[in-house]
Each structure stands twice: as C-alpha cells, then as structure tokens.
Design brief:
Layout lengths: L3 E10 L2 E11 L4 E6 L5 H9 L6 E6 L4 H11 L1 E3 L11 H9 L6 H11 L13 H13 L5 E5 L7 H16 L3 E6 L2 H7 L2 E6 L2 E7 H7 E8 L13 E7 L3 E7 L5 H7 L3 E7 L3 H11 L4 H7 L6 H9 L1
Helix pairs in contact: 3-4, 4-5, 6-7
Bound molecules: adenosine-5'-triphosphate.
Protein name: Putative ABC transporter ATP-binding protein YxlF
Pfam families: ABC_tran
GO molecular function: ATP binding; ATP hydrolysis activity
C-alpha cells in the first residue's frame, strides 16, 4: 500500500496556483522530502493530505483514505508537526503528555516519556520556559508517541540550532529504518540531503522532479567548460541539458542529466574547448538547476515511484 498518493492535484487561491497537477506516491519505510522555496506550495500540499484544504481537482490518498471524507481519522492515525505548532505552553511537559494521552490508546504517555528522555527533554518544566528547540522536541514527541506509521513534518527544523537540527533529522532515519514513513517539507536542503531517500522538488505549485535521491545524484553531472575565447560555441545538448550558465568570460557550466554516451567526448573534442571538468552536484545545486531550468522532468514519472509498479517494489528498492 502507498502511504501517500497524490494524482494530478490542483489548488488555486484566486490568481495563485498553489498546486498544479501534483502527483507523487510514497512507499512505506522511507524518508520523503518535499523541497521548495517560500510559497512553492509545500504547506498547501500537506494541508491537502490532512484534509484541512480541499483541492480543486485530483485525488489524494493517505493510508488509503480520502482526506476529504476521512480527514479526522487520518489526523488521528498519523503524527504531524505543522509549520507553526500550537502548544498549551502554560502546561508542564508532563502535563501536555497526559493531556494528549487522553486521545490515544494506553501506552502513549510511556512512549512520550521514552522519547523525552531520548531527546533530553525535561518533563517537569513549563513549556513556555523551553527554548525553541525544546518546544520543537515537545511537538515531535507528541506527534510520535502513538508510534504512527506516517509522520508528516512541515519545516520541522526551522529556527533550530545546527546540532539540534542534525540530531532531529538523523532521528528520522531511525524512524524510517523501523519501517515507518517520514514526509518532511523543507528548504534546509544540505541537511535533507543527509537523510532523504526520495526528494520532490516543488516550484510555483508544480513538482519539477520526484525521484530517489541516489538516482538524481548518479545521473546528474556538472560540466565546467573552459574555452579558448568567449566566442567558441558548444555542440547542442538540449536533450539532456538542465541549465547552462556563464561563469566569467571563458568558463561555462552545464548541468546535465543522463547525457548521451559520447557527449562528453564530443564536448572535449570541440574546437576552442580547452578543458571540461566533471563534478557531482550537491542536492542544493540539483535543486537550483531544476528551479532555473523550469523543466518538469518526465523521468520522475517514469523512474521514481512508478504508478504501474506495485509500491512494495519501490519500497524494496529504497532499502537496497
Ligand atoms: N489561504 C490562502 N489564501 C490565499 N493564498 C494562499 C493561501 N494559502 C497559501 N496561499 C498561497 O499559495 C502559495 C503556496 O503557499 P504555501 O504556503 O503552500 O507555500 P510553502 O511552500 O509552504 O511556503 P513556505 O515555505 O513559505 O511556508 C503562496 O503563493 C501562498 O501565498
């Protein structure tokens, strides 16, 4: 079963297209990161998954349920940390755990206490006296204490210190390796790169690419071309080119995906080309390349989380 599946989901606010034909499918046991700049449509996507926003068209399924009808049930089953969690901050940590525990089966408070100990969170202090990081840990422990199969986190690390952010994200890898699924939205790309199995890059309401991170890193290269003089022209490579930028007068940087086998040699043999250096881009560079290219990568439909292949296969692939 797909933990989350969106098909051609669109949502418009007056003139703003917050989501445009958004499709992706998330198998169990992975960390899935939705990346996008401010206003890309990440929160709208999450709100649609929670049944807090009604899309204009398309289908959303979360744990095989329809958020339009089963929003409350979905929100009860999953764990969620919204972008601005609201906590009763006059309560002590222990009190909020007991309060929340009233909505869940037995065992919630014990698991909360275990998580609090793991996060080094004091139980006997008022929430309002905690740092931002401390409050984020409370939100996360509250979302995780009923051991949900799916954890949805909207910008979970914004405002946290680097070390706390790292620890937090690393704990998400543990959650996924226990077979549960983590969906997180973020614009902290370098950190996401350390933990994500799949990434979707969203821009202006559209998913530009949605793929296994490993595949993106294996297939995308940066070619830095040094020219004899600025007038030299390069051979055509539109079919695999994401971006082409000048770096000063005599250098050009091409970001390419799955280039034709002889393309690099052809480029190196081109008259006026002195040197071509090949680099593996970081996820941040891949992100920028997709944003600049404005392309919707057809491969993300075909290769990443194929619609026609049983999701369990994609999950097995993710673990291997
Ligand atoms: N309730 C609303 N009414 C009108 N416009 C909205 C509403 N909610 C979101 N938008 C617009 O939809 C677009 C997508 O917003 P959304 O909050 O989903 O982006 P985001 O990727 O989560 O951004 P951020 O990283 O800043 O939180 C933005 O242009 C935003 O202004």
């Amino acid at each position: 079963m797909a933990m989350v599946e969106l098909r051609d989901v669109s949502k418009r606010y007056r003139t703003v297209r917050a989501m445009e034909n958004v499709s992706f499918r998330i198998p169990p046991g992975v960390v899935f990161a939705l990346l996008g700049e401010n206003g890309a449509g990440k929160t709208t996507t999450i709100r649609s998954m929670l049944g807090l926003e009604q899309p204009d068209s398309g289908t959303v399924r979360v744990l095989a349920m329809d958020p339009r009808k089963d929003g409350i049930e979905i929100r009860r089953k999953i764990g969620c940390v919204p972008d601005a969690p609201k906590l009763y901050d006059w309560m002590k940590v222990s009190e909020i755990a007991w309060f929340a525990g009233g909505f869940y089966p037995e065992g919630y408070v014990a698991e909360f206490e275990r998580l609090a100990a793991e996060f080094e969170l004091p139980m006997n202090v008022k929430i309002k006296t905690l740092s931002k990081g401390g409050k984020a840990k409370v939100s996360l422990a509250l979302a995780m204490a009923h051991t949900p199969e799916l954890l949805i986190l909207d910008e979970p690390t914004s405002g946290l210190d680097t070390l706390v952010r790292r620890k937090f994200l690393e704990s998400m890898v543990d959650v996924a390796s226990a077979g549960r699924t983590v969906f997180l939205s973020s614009h902290q790309i370098p950190e996401v790169e350390r933990v994500a199995d799949y990434v979707a890059i969203m821009n202006e309401g559209k998913i530009r690419v949605c793929e296994k991170l490993e595949t993106l890193k294996a297939e995308i290269e940066q070619w830095v071309v040094t020219l004899e003089n600025p007038e030299c022209s390069l051979p055509p490579c539109d079919s695999f080119l994401l971006t082409h930028e000048g770096i000063g007068q005599r250098r050009q940087q091409l970001t390419v995906r799955s280039p034709e086998p002889n393309a690099l040699w052809a480029l190196r043999d081109t008259e006026g080309v002195l040197q071509v250096d090949v680099h593996t881009p970081s996820l941040e560079e891949i992100f920028v390349a997709y944003l600049k290219s404005g392309k919707n990568d057809w491969r993300s439909e075909q290769n990443s989380l194929p619609r026609d292949v049983p999701v369990s296969d994609a999950s097995e692939e993710a673990k291997s």
